[in-house]
Design brief:
This protein is α/β, with parallel strands linked by helices. It is 27% helix and 22% strand. The strands form three sheets. It has a four-stranded mixed beta sheet. Strands 1-2-3 form a three-stranded mixed beta sheet, covered by helices on one side.
């Protein structure tokens, strides 16, 4: 990734998809807007000493003003994705860039929200929680699996799936989950119920760098294992996998 890319030099992989879940009250009035997007909220940098929610704070404020209700941010797989204006000093227009990025996201949220049709009746909702022991990156023999990773999977109706993960997963993991999912709308939610640092891809660990060789402490392959497990759990919840395989 580029630590700063103001010239917007094309790079990949990047997940530009933005997901929206709109929740209404019984009378049709807006209750909440859940927004899924994958980018570090680091337009502001260490030179800024004010408390700020960065671009998510800006877009949530705009969405609440224009749509009503409560806006909520679901951070996607953003481990190796930064904004174009990364860690911008205030005297270089940091707060203006926060507002500009917030406006861009808010406009898309509002457009998508207004196109959602919803259900005539309340959908069934299921939740599954699993805690998976992981070993340390330094534990080559995988003897001690004392790092506990909690993953949660939520199925809303038959076509909305959410999977939560406790760390900063590289963008490929979010892309992989969504590409392989059999649910029409699938949300990868990172930084949830714990933070075990960066979760790079196996391929990224061979290249090194921040988040792949440093600032990561989980065993190699941990992220792929958790993403696969979340997908399996969702399929069980949706009865897409039989709990009692047939005996031929």
């Amino acid at each position: 990734m580029f630590w700063e890319n103001r010239e917007r030099i094309p790079t990949s992989p990047v997940d530009y998809e933005l997901g929206v879940i709109r929740v209404e009250q019984l009378d049709g009035q807006p209750l909440a807007t859940l927004v899924s997007f994958q980018c570090h909220p680091v337009v502001l940098g260490p030179e800024n000493l004010d408390i700020s929610a960065d671009y998510p704070g800006a877009f949530m404020r705009m969405v609440e003003t224009e749509l009503g209700g409560q806006a909520m941010f679901l951070q996607g797989a953003a481990g190796d994705i930064n904004p174009f204006w990364d860690k911008t000093p205030p005297d270089e227009g940091a707060f203006e860039q926060v507002e500009a990025m917030g406006r861009a996201v808010a406009d898309e949220v509002i457009r998508v929200s207004e196109s959602i049709t919803g259900w005539e009746a309340a959908p069934a909702i299921s939740l599954h929680t699993e805690v998976i022991p992981l070993a340390s990156r330094r534990d080559v023999e995988r003897v001690q699996r004392d790092m506990l990773a909690e993953i949660n999977t939520v199925l809303i109706g038959t076509d909305i799936a959410l999977a939560t993960f406790p760390g900063e997963f590289f963008v490929e993991h979010g892309l992989s989950l969504k590409a392989r999912s059999q649910f029409e709308h699938t949300f990868f939610v990172g930084y949830t119920n714990g933070s075990l640092g960066y979760f790079p891809t196996i391929q990224a660990t061979t290249k090194g760098g921040y988040g792949a060789a440093s600032a990561t402490r989980v065993e190699v392959g941990a992220s792929e294992r958790l993403v696969n497990r979340a997908l399996i759990n969702l399929y069980y919840q949706a009865d897409k996998i039989s709990r009692s395989p047939r005996r031929d």
